[in-house]
Structures are given as C-alpha cells and as structure tokens.
Amino acid sequence: MDKYNIQRNKEKLTDADIAKGKDFEALMNAHGGASQPFYKKPGFYGVVAVTGVMLVVGGYFLSESSSAPTSPAPFIAPPIAGVDIADTTWSVNAGSGQDFIYGTGSVVRIPANAFTDSTGKVVDGPVEIRYREFHDPASIFIAGIPMTYDSAGQQYHFESAGMLEITAWQNGVPLKTNPAAPIRVAMASNTPEDKFNIYYLDTVKKNWSFIKKDDPIVIRLAADTAAAKVGAVATTPTEPIKPMKADAKKPGFAIAYDPAEFPELNAYKGVRFEVDESKTPYNRADSKIQWEDVSITRNSDGATYTVVFTKDEREVRYVTYAAIDGANYTAAMKTFDAKYAEYQASIKAKENAANNQSQRMRLIVEEQDRHRLWVNDTLAARAMAIRAARGMNNETEGMIMREFMLENFGVWNSDCPSSLPEGAEIFATLKDSRNNKPLQVDKVYLVERGRNAIFTYYTAALKEFKFNPDSENMLWAITPDGFLAIYSADDFKTINTSKKNVALTMQVTSTKVKTPVEARSALGINPT
Amino acid sequence: MYVIAKDIFMNTDSKYHLTREQITTEEREIAAAQKDPRQFKPLYERYYERVLRFVYGRVTSKEEAYDITQQVFLAAIENLPKYKSVGVPFNAWLFRVASNELGKYYRKNNVRQSISIDDTQVADVLLEMGEENSAITDARLMKAIQQLEQEEADLLQMRFFDKVPFKDLADMLGITETAAKARVYRLLEKLKGIINALS
What we know:
The complex is a heterodimer of chains A (528) and B (199). Chain A has 528 residues and is an alpha+beta fold. Chain A is built from ten helices and 29 strands. The longest helix of chain A has 28 residues, at 326-353. In chain B, α6 (135-146) packs across α9 (177-198). With 199 residues, chain B is mainly α. Chain B has two domains: 20-109, Rna Polymerase Sigma Factor, Chain: A (Orthogonal Bundle), CATH 1.10.1740.10; 119-198, Arc Repressor Mutant, subunit A, CATH 1.10.10. The interface between A and B is large, with 64 and 78 residues. β1 (4-8) of chain A pairs parallel with β1 of chain B, so a sheet runs across the interface.
C-alpha cells in the first residue's frame, strides 16, 4: 500500500471556509469555560472524540512521569558506577590566557583574565582547565547527560552535533567565567547540518537553556572549496566612505598608501588622516621626530583608521579619520555621489542576481563560509592535523566547527530537538538473559546507529514502545546490580512488529564494565 | 553540476514572519495567555488560518481539518502555561503540536497521511527540477513522493503546495532561512534522484 494518500486538485479552502471554522469562544468552552453550550457548536463530536484521545495520551504522560524516580539524584549521573568520560586537563596562566587544541581538533581560546572567583574578582596565577567532549551516543550515555527536555507537554529529545563540558579550578576551588573576557570554543563537529541550536545545561534549574541558533562554520584550507565547485562567489562591492572635509586646524597626516589596500578611499585625491583627538590626543612633539615607518589599518567600525609610526623601539598610535583637503573636497563629493550610486546599483544587481538559482546556491555557500571566525589558519591547520592523525579527517569539504562563547562553565551542546522514533509500536516487556526473568530497570535507552541521540523510556512507557524499524536500533539499560544490559541491533531485526506483545531479552554482560573503553566495546560504539 | 529550479528560492511576501519587535510583542501575548487563557485570542487569530491550511493539506475533508485544528489549539492552550522557549519560535512549537495531533489522528483512525497537490503545482515542481512535464514524469513524481520520509513530505507540501514563504518555513521548522532553502534544495535533489532512478 502507498505510504501517502495523494489527493489531486482537492477543493481549496475559501475565506468563508476559514471563517466557518474559526471560533475562539468554542475553544474557550472546550478549554473549560461554560459560557456557551459547546455541544451546540459545529464540530463538537469531532472535538469530543479527539479530546478523548488526548486524555488517554495525557494519562500516558502522567503515568510515564510518575514512574520516574523521585529521589534527588544528581542531574548529571553516569549510569555505570565508577565509569565516566575522562577530562583532559590543561594549565593556563590566568593573567595571560592561551589557546588549546583538544584531541578532536576543537580549539579552546582562553583570553587573559578569563576567570573570576565566587565574589566576581578576577583571578591571576595558574588555573586548571578540565575539558571533555561527547560526540556519540555511547559517550553521552556513559557520562549520564540528560538529553530530554519537556516543554509545555511537548517532549523534546535532543539530537546532538557535539557537546562539551568545561570547568576551571584554582587550588581545587571552582572558578567562574569573566563576562568581560569570554572564553571561546570552536568545537570540531562531525556533522555539517545547520539544524542545530546552542544550549547550556543549567544544572541548578535542571534544564537546558536555549542560547542561540548554531551556524556551523566550515574551516577550509584546501583550494577545493564548495564555493569553487559552484563557481566564483560574487564579490561584495565596497561601500564608499562619504568624504569628510579636512579641518586645517586639526592635526593630521598626509600618508602615501597602497590604493589596493583601501578601495573605499581609492577614488579620492587629497586624503589626509586627521587625528580623532577624542580617542588619541595629539602630541605635537611627535611631529619633530623623523619616523622610520608608518602603517595604516582600517578599524572594525569602518570609519576610522589607526596610524602607527615607529622608530627603533618607539611606537605611537593615532586613531584618525580619512578627510579630504579643501581643494579636493567638492570633487570628492561628486565622486562619492557617483560611487555611492554605483554601489547601490551593484547591491541591487547582486540582489537581482540572487534571484538566479545557481547564484542563490552560491550565496548559501558563501553565507556558510562567511565566518572564518577567530580560528586562524595556523590553529586550523594544527586542528586538522590532529584530526588527520587520529583518522578523523573525514570531511573532504572542510572541517566543521561550531562556535561557543561561554557565559558559564558547564555543559554546552549543539542540539536539535527531535521526535521519538516512529514506525513500529509494541508492548515491550524486558527479560534478563541470565535467568530469563523480568528485568527490573527504571529506564532504558533507545539508540539509532548514525544518529547522535539517546531516547530515554521509563519502563512504564514500554507499553507503547515505538521505534523505527528501518533504523539500526539498540536498547541499553543498567541492571539493578550494576551490569550493562543490551538489546542489540541484530536482536531488533528479529522483532515481529505485527505482534502487539513482545518480550525483549536483554543480554547482560558477564562482568561489570570498569572503563569507558569496556563500555564502548560492550555497546558496540567506537569513538567518533 | 548544480541545476536548481528557477523559482524555489523566490521569496514571496510573508504575513507570518515576525520582526524582532513583533516577536517581543508576541512573547508578551504568550506571557499574558499563560496567566489568562482568554488572552490567547491574538495568537489564535494570527495562526488559525495557517494551522487550518496545514492540517487541511494532510487530511481528506474540511470537517476533519476543522476538528483537528480545534484540537491543536486546545492542546496548545492547555499546554501553554508550561510553554517555554527552547530555541524554536512559538510558530514552530504550534506546528509541532499540530504535527503531533495529526500523528495521533492518523494512528487512532488508522488512516494514511494525505498530501494535497494541484496539477499546476506538480508542473511547477517538475519544471523546477528541470524535468519535462508529461504524464510519465508526473507519474514518476507521484511514485517518488511515496518514498519520502514524513518530514520531507511535510516540507514538500508546505513549500510547494501550501506555498509557504521561506521566512515562514524557517520559523515553522525552527531553522534559519538559509537552512530552509538548503533543505528544500536537498529535497528536490532527492526527488530528482528517485525520478532518474525510475527512468
């Protein structure tokens, strides 16, 4: 039978149809009010019928949550006693900061003065950083990190593009982040998908907090970029700077510069760099020095330039504006008007070009490439070399990084809320392979190979246990006596989904696992 | 070789996509409705038509669509006190509720998901895939659609048959507009691949 019922040329909804169905008062009545008899409203029987369904489902959720353990267990609780994902530790001088590269190729940038104590005072001296990452269901499971979130009756299950935990310590005392000097992490990710958000695990509120949408960054060192594959990316025109008339009374410098370096000034003659004395007071003594070198850098505000004069060890800096001397100002304004019109036309043309389908795809790629972020080529090359050495350099298109700016120490995740797997539904009961008796566990974890997610089912919910029969599924649990119990992907293939009641005999390991390596081996998940 | 349909990246006007100010206003409306359900009315008025169209495209009759849409809003309003942003817009949450209610409806009534398509829209999709519009390709497209996952079928329905603008699509899916475009692009590539395999 076909999967979908395809209806061709179905009758369209008219405004009258829409108005007919819209009835806020009926909704209020159904919700609990009683100002109007709801049975008099059109659609009553349908609503009652479906409401009945909802109540049943509501009962299911209640029974599911009521079966959850209520003891105040730690929010992050590794399920296998004594087994956890180990931290990597680094030592950093808090006053100077440092970049670190983790084994997966992730880059951690710790700026100077990044730590405060519990009173908010910036700390100095050696600080120990503890850092670890989780990139597959086994590591998430071993670490006991909760991957579910319930909001307004909607149960979300997080699928992760990579997760990290970072803490900082001085003399055994935990430190806090300094908002004035945020730590950044560019986490190497195994997926280029852009469906993920950044979340922080708030262990006090026992909930995930949404931070922002995640925009993966592709670090490319090879020439074979995606942009190259689809052709040259259209260049962004440079917005011309409106000329400022030079003030002869203000200090300024006439400096010969490379026009290619400053295309926004290219069209103007008589440019002098006039000192912004509100930012850098001018020292007239500097004019008497025969400087050996001068450099000009356009600042990130786009309007000012930093001019640096050097001689031997001496260096002076001035923040300046590009100004046009009086003789050239009128011509400069004419040029500006013409250039600005050109610029606007080119922006418009670019927008129009964006309507071209292949150009649009290029723009998508361009947007994804836009952030080359703070990971410079040297760091990126080192990170990629580390991945290559570990056989992890699987991306021919480039290295995927996800950027975190840490507001707090703790667990940070690039996640996407996803639904429970569907496709088959059974009333599952669990059996212990050691004695063929019912297996008493609080919860089980469903894992689909190739999906970085763990779906937790409290055992009461197993009466409506759903899974995707097209996926390679595994079920994991920890027995009350601390052994790992596994229902393997091969076992799943034997399930007769046409039967309602199915007993799942979970294979219990003969010995307790004592290390993450043993756990991974038993779970059949190699590190990624 | 990137051969992309000429229209798929066209942005049509959105009447649902919200500016930052509107989002702030909507957050106030949600907060008010969390305290007093009657304050839910602006949200109901704003999204009723969109939810009804979404549901109608996936069932066979208007009556079913009315009932399920009412149920969607009932579930929404009953769950609203617990609503908290988890990184997806309210719009996205509401459509997740709608998807859940539809899923329950299909299961409980043992019916298949419907996909509603007009002949002109089929022609558009084929054109955008660079395929000739003929009875053969039309039939292949129908077969290809049968191979889509439910999320993909929903995306196809929303973008091509409900004509949802990308900005709205992004909001509904809780992803960026760029990601929505890329997802539609991949969907078309997949359909094209299946059609080619059927050729």
